[in-house]
Each structure stands twice: as structure tokens, then as C-alpha cells.
């Protein structure tokens, strides 16, 4: 998604991923702006790797 803010490098809105009928990711929304560092933190199974795989188009997301 393209943002109107020129400093925004990544903009994610309502990212959702289902696996086997279960919502793995539920409406994740965030921005990464220029000169900002973002960390995805959470316990095992929280969806950190799945989020990155979706951003890299390595898996299909729900539209």
C-alpha cells in the first residue's frame, strides 16, 4: 500500500492470514517510516515468521 507520507517505507493495513480455517493473523496494521527500526516480538507461535512471509509474498494472504 502506498502511503501519502513520503517517509513511510512499509505500510501494512489489516493483514489477515487463515490456515486450516483458523485465523493465524488477525487484522495486523503497522507502518515503518524512514530511519525507524521495527521489532516483531512475541512468544513462539505468535505469527512473527508468518507476518514476514506475507510481507515477502512467500505465502498467500486473505484479501
Automatic annotation (TrEMBL):
GO terms for molecular function: ATP binding; ATP hydrolysis activity. It holds the Pfam family ABC_tran. InterPro entries: ABC_transporter-like_ATP-bd (IPR003439), P-loop_NTPase (IPR027417). Residues 25-59 form the ABC transporter domain. SUPFAM superfamilies: P-loop containing nucleoside triphosphate hydrolases. Coiled coil: none annotated. PANTHER family: ABC TRANSPORTER, ATP-BINDING PROTEIN. This is ABC transporter domain-containing protein.
Amino acid at each position: 500500500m502506498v502511503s501519502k507520507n513520503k517517509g513511510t517505507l512499509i505500510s501494512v493495513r489489516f493483514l489477515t492470514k487463515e490456515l486450516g480455517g483458523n485465523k493465524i493473523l488477525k487484522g495486523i496494521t503497522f507502518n515503518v517510516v524512514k530511519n525507524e527500526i521495527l521489532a516483531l516480538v512475541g512468544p513462539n507461535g505468535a505469527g512473527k515468521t508468518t507476518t514476514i512471509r506475507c510481507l515477502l509474498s512467500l505465502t498467500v494472504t486473505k484479501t
